[in-house]
Structures are given as C-alpha cells and as structure tokens.
Amino acid sequence: MKRKFGRLLALVAVFGLLCTSCLGGDEPAAPAGKSAAPSGTEEPPAGNGEVTVGLERDVYAIPDYTNAGDDVRVVRLSVSMNASDYGTSASGVMVKTFVDRVEELSGGKMVVQVFPANQLASTTDDIVNGLVTGAFEMSEVGQANWGDYTTAFTPLNVPFLYPNEQTAYAIMSGEIGDGMREQLLADTGLRTVGFMHLGMRTLSNDSKEIHSPTDMKSMKLRVQSDPTQIAAFEELGASVMTTSFSELFTALQQGLCDGQDNPIITIVSQKFYEVQNYITMLNHLPNLSMVVMSDAYYQSLSAEEQGWIDQAGQDATEACYQTMLDTTQILIDQLTDYGIDITYLTDEEYQVFEDSVPNTWAMCEEAIGTDAWNELLAAVEAEHQLPVGSVKVQCSIETARGVLNAREIVAASPRVISLSFGAEDYTRSMGTSRSKSAQELQFARTYLPVVAAEAGISAIDTVWSALDDQEGFEVEVRNARALGFSGKSCIHPSQIPVVHRLYTPDEEEVAHARQVMEAMRAAEQAGTGVFTVDGKMVDAPVIAKARRVLLQIGEEV
Questions:
Q1: Arithmetic mean of pLDDT, 278-297
Q2: Superfamily, domain 20-350
Q3: Burial class (CB in 10 A: 0-12, 13-18, 19+), 421
C-alpha cells in the first residue's frame, strides 16, 4: 500500500493509570538491565531511577450506595480497574464520570454501584452470563475478547488499519461504530453504553530497538488471544504467546516472554517499564473496551431512565478519550526520562511492517463480509479526506482452493490491484513440498498470471528462500518474468537489486520499443494503418508491449 494510506492499512482489558506520586504506591524500580543503588545508600539509581512515572491527580473514593433507599434505582457496574484508579486514570475517569453524571441527571433517583478489580466476574464468559442472568447490570469487555460471541468488533483487531487514536475514535463514534454496536446487540442481547479508549497499542521488549519485522524474528511476544492479532504477529516473524494478562508482568520479569504489546497507559499502570528496556511506537492497533448492559434490563427502564444512561455513557466516553489524549505524551516523556528507549518508526519502516501482514486483512473481510469491509475502508478514507477507493488491496493466494478461486477473489473488490503467490502454504495444502525444479508449482505459476492479466492487475511471484543460491534465484526470477509475473517477493534486501536488474528492460528491448513507437507515430501522421519494424508487421500487442517497456524506465509514451 502507498504511504498515504500507510497507517490506514489496523482496546481490551482496561487497566488504570497508576498515580504513584499521589496514591502512596511504591517508587518504580530501575528498568531491567539498569543498575540500582544498593539498599541504604543515598545515591539515586542509575538511569534516572528516581524519576516517578505517573500522573499527580486527586484521590477519589468509590461511592458506596449499599444502603440506598428503596426509591433509588441502583445499577451494578463490574469493571477491571482497581479501586485506586477511580477518577485518576483514563478508564477510571470514564467510570467516575458515568457514576457522577447518572446521579446528576437523575437527581439521585438512579445511582451506579461500582465493583472494581473484577470482583463480580473476570472472564468474558462470566461477564456475559452475569449480565444475561441479572447478577449485575453493566460491565466492560475488551475488543479482542468478543470472538466467541460476535464478529462485531473484528475490524478493531486488524493491524495498521487505523493510523492514530483520532481515526479509531471517529470510526467508533460514527456509523461504522453504530453498526458494530447493532451487531453486538443482535448477536448477544447486550447494549453498548459507551467505550473506553486507552490509545494505540505499542510494542515493548527487553533486549533491543525494533525497526523492522526482521528484528522481531523468533522473539517471544505476548499478544491478545485474538486470531487476527495472532496471525499478524506470526506473519511478522514473532513467536507468539497468549499469556494471561494477570501473569504478564511475572512472565516478562522471568524472561518467559521477551516482550508484549499494549498502549502506553497500560505499560505505565502495570509497571511493565520496570522489566522492559525498549518501546517501539508501532501504533498497530487501537485499544478499546466496550461498556455494555443487558438489553433486557435496559428495556425495563423508563424512557427517562434510558436517557440518563445514554447521556452519561456519551459523556463518560468523551471524558475517557480526552484523558487518554492529555496523558499519553506526558507518560512517554516520563518513560524517556526514566531511561526507556523509545523508538519512532520512519514512514519507510512503518510501510515494511504494514506490507508484512497481508493475511489479516483477508481474515477480517471473510469474517464481516466484503460489503462491510469496503464500507469500513471508505469510512477510514473519508476521515482522512482521501478519495474513495484510494485504499488498495493485494490478495495473497496460498492454497489450492485459493488458486482455483483466484478469478472470483480478484474480482471481489475494485480495490484489488495485485495478487501474490505463496508457494510454501500452497504446497502444504497440496500435500507436497517445494523442490528446486519447482515442478509442483507449474499449474499455479502458469494460471495466476493469466488471472491477473485478465483482471488488469499485477501478479507477484513467490519468495526464494535459499539465500546462498544466487544463481538459482536469478533463474527463478527470469522464469517468473517469462510466465507473466509483474514482480517477485523478496525475503532479504540482498535480493532486491537482482529483481530490479532482471525486471528492468535491457538496452536492446528499450531501443526496439522506441523504434516501434516512432514508427507508429510516423504511420499515424501518414495515415497508414499498417506498418513494419525490422521487416516485421507491427500490430496492437507489439505496440502495447513497447509502451510497457518504456513506462518501466519512466519514459512518457
């Protein structure tokens, strides 16, 4: 994809931002790998270890409505945040705003009793069951945890689709978000009251800066247990782990995981910075959690009571979002002062990451349908004032079924500009293995360029993994070009010059192409319909080839 969509081509258990300076928490330890002063000394730890990471905020107590009168409607809200986060973190600000606004709007006729730290339910199954059975009226579930119940929030789990917090918030607050909420209601009977937005997910690790997927190869990374996210990080070369969030700090501390992905707010609130030295601002996903209520309970309320809930939910969502925007950069600056290495990717580096996860887009489109997928892309384009259709799609053909259905696949959307052939997965689907002769690939490599040519798009040939066999690679590239492939996938930078050289027309081809175009223009001026070059009659296909050759070298025709 082109960089203008860059970050257009992509929010879960919510944890508060600890305010260590005002909540009485322990001072943060020096990050792993950074020395700390011996106990009892007055010298501060190395690496700016005395820097407090967190925000100074007022301390609020969760109101207790246990003894509310019989004439007061009490709504029970189960949340994952700790009691100490109430009103102090992005998620805590949302909860407090919701509590305050419900009481204010209702004049005390309705109040919200908050149960923090997953007191009433912790797993998605327990939360959904509790809401359906009436054990409590409200709770929150992260975007990645809905998979067993609905595909409504699948688009939120597509890496590199949303370039920033603002885009994600705009999409969730608009018609696309309305559609997600309607689907959740239809699939589960749960109504979305609001959502928590904690920012974009970043990548942390304990060993090195990350500038490319190559830097992540074989790195043990904990990600959320969502199929799309797992597939994306596997495509990036990581060894994926789905350690539970409650055990993540210990896993990082003990080296069971090398790194993890979470927004800056969560990295601070959970003190991951104490056991992680590096943060890469990958910003690959937004981090959202849906605040939901049983629709059966909602419908039991009067129209006035429903209005209180709806308005409080809107106000609380906006408060959470604004708090996140206001605090994220402050925390980044504090982490830098503390000694954490913060890496910001260049546009070119970001593009490499984006191009390395083609299958996740296909997974989302399959889950939600082509029409819904195109509507989502159009909404992202509109948010960034891009022409409709400017976001393009490359189809990866990697199975026997994919090869046979290639014509239908490339015709599924006008956004498709190319197809790429993945031989490793293809041979696995065929029950064979790759050989140097590539006999097992003959049908697919012959058929797919024909499909691409018919559709007027590009075809990209499979990778060559034998980096030490340069001669074999050159033969492979020449064969791919001869079969009609427009390009060749590369797995190492050293292969790129070879592909460029072999796909660049040689001097003889260029000279012939110029000769054909000059002869064509001369014939047009003379009013001659038929002409020859080097004694051979020239027809439309020859002219078309000459045009392509000259366009390849940047000449106007």
A1: 97
A2: Bacterial extracellular solute-binding protein, family 7 (3.40.190.170)
A3: buried
Rounded Cα gap, residues 470 and 320, in angstroms: 55
Q: Could you read off the pLDDT of 440-497 as tens digits, one per residue?
A: 999 999 999 999 999 999 999 999 988 899 999 999 999 999 999 999 999 888 899 9
Q: In this predicted model, what pLDDT tens digit does every residue of 108-141 receive, in sequence order?
A: 999 999 999 999 999 999 999 999 999 999 999 9
Instruction: Name the token pair of 198.
Output: 């904690």
| Position 147 confidence tier, pLDDT thresholds 50, 70, 90 | very high
Pair 284, 159: CB distance under 8 Å: yes
Average pLDDT over residues 385-409: 87
Across-strand partners of 444? none
Q: Closest Cα to residue 110, out of 306, 290, 313?
A: 306
- Asked whether 255 and 243 are in contact (CB, 8 A), the reply is no
CATH 3.40.190.170-classified regions of the chain: 20-350
Specify the pLDDT at position 21.
28
For residue 217, give Cα distances in angstroms to 28, 247, 252, 258: 30, 24, 18, 12
Beta carbons of 277 and 206 less than 8 angstroms apart: yes
310 exposure class (CB count in 10 Å sphere: 0-12, 13-18, 19+): middle
Distances (CA, A) of 529 to 104, 278, 299, 525: 84, 68, 76, 10
Average pLDDT on 491-506 reads: 88
Q: What is the model's pLDDT at position 374?
A: 85
- Listed in order, the ranges of the chain carrying CATH 3.20.20.60 are 392-503
Query: CA-CA distance, 30 to 37, in Å (whole number)?
Result: 9
Could you tell me the fold of the domain covering 392-503?
A: TIM Barrel (3.20.20)
Residue closest to 549 by CA, chosen among 518, 520, 506 = 506
Instruction: Give the DSSP H or E segment for 240.
Output: strand 239-241
Answer yes or no: are the C-beta atoms of 89 and 269 closer than 8 Å.
yes
The phi-psi region of residue 496 (left if phi > 0; otherwise alpha if psi is between -120 and 50; otherwise beta) is: alpha
